[in-house]
Specification:
- By secondary structure, the chain is an all-alpha fold.
- The chain has a domain at 60-195: Tetratricopeptide repeat domain (Serine Threonine Protein Phosphatase 5, Tetratricopeptide repeat).
- The chain has helices spanning 60-72, 77-89, 93-106, 111-123, 127-140, 145-159, 162-175, 180-195.
- Helix 2 runs antiparallel to helix 3 (93-106) and helix 4 (111-123) packs parallel to helix 6.
């Protein structure tokens, strides 16, 4: 699994490197594996200032492996998930979208695929479409913290909706304060409060 570092910045202000995060509910993948095992996303090191990250190389062998399974078993959901994830890891987001959509045709309640589909839309500069897809994910599972975390990210950076982002991240903290998602959401909120004291992300003042 390729770990990506996300550097957050809101509306031109210095938001800070408050967390290295995989944007998306990506699964742990081992070469040659036929099943995916969910693991908590790992913290990754922030990108070095001024340095360019090399573009990931698509794992063609892995694509061929799962394409063969799909060709031989047109209703194999897991192989489609793995194809989508492989294209996502290779930053081939349009191809990833195709396969996440294929997954959802066969398994409409696959919340992980739904959320990763939304993330892929976001990476193609389609924040509205991403947010719509996240709403579909939350209709399946209103407590899906990775969806809520990503919803906050897209609201903040795709729509400059700081109040909406705050609401999403606060919900993550309420649901799973000690989880990796909860810790990331708390750091996001703390950074926002530091940048905007008394504004978005601040705690309500008492009367």
């Amino acid at each position: 699994m390729k770990i990506e570092s996300i550097v957050f910045a809101i509306a031109g202000m210095v938001f800070g490197l408050f967390v290295g995060w995989i944007i998306g509910d990506q699964l742990a993948r081992q070469p040659g594996a036929t099943t995916a095992v969910q693991t908590p996303p790992a913290q990754s090191a922030p990108a070095q200032a001024g340095g360019e990250q090399p573009r990931p190389v698509l794992d063609e062998a892995r694509v061929q492996q799962y394409q063969t399974i799909v060709d031989n078993d047109p209703r194999n959901v897991e192989a489609r998930v793995q194809l989508a994830n492989t294209y996502f890891d290779g930053e081939r987001y349009q191809d990833a979208i195709k396969w996440y959509e294929e997954v959802l045709k066969l398994d409409p309640r696959n919340v992980n695929a739904s959320t990763d589909l939304g993330v892929s839309y976001y990476y193609l500069n389609q924040p509205d479409r991403a947010l719509t897809q996240f709403e579909r994910s939350l209709a399946i599972d209103p407590r899906h913290t990775k969806t809520l975390l990503n919803q906050g990210i897209v609201r903040a950076f795709g729509k400059q909706d700081l109040d909406g982002a705050t609401a999403s991240w606060q919900r993550v903290v309420e649901l799973a304060p000690d989880s990796p998602e909860g810790q990331a959401a708390r750091r996001a909120l703390d950074s926002m409060r530091s940048a905007h004291p008394g504004g978005a992300g601040s705690s309500p003042s008492g009367s």
